């Protein structure tokens, strides 16, 4: 079989994984969502790129992600397994059920924001006195 993109040939009987491959600079990470053989390293040749993820917020405070759902569905049908970060992203895109860690992260963010707001109002009250 020839890969759709990448440059790696692969054996059809090995297990595949849909996972993140890191690109970008030292302080500016960028991830490709790729299909690879499960035992390959992160920077080895990929079979196919099925999406991308930019974890740093843009000017509108959005983290951008793009998926090729048709190809993801194809590879999952062929027996590929998705890594935990990819499952979380697919859950947020309503492809999978929302991952429990997503709920935990949202709860921690809300608690931290409430604590920061309480500290700021406390500091304002102290300054007014």
TrEMBL record:
Gene3D superfamilies: 3.30.1320.10
Keywords: Ribonucleoprotein, Ribosomal protein
Name of this chain's protein: Small ribosomal subunit protein bS16m
Domain of life: Eukaryota
The family this protein is said to belong to: Belongs to the bacterial ribosomal protein bS16 family.
PANTHER family to which the protein is assigned, alphabetical: 30S RIBOSOMAL PROTEIN S16, SMALL RIBOSOMAL SUBUNIT PROTEIN BS16M
Cited InterPro entries: Ribosomal_bS16 (IPR000307), Ribosomal_bS16_dom_sf (IPR023803)
Pfam families per record: Ribosomal_S16
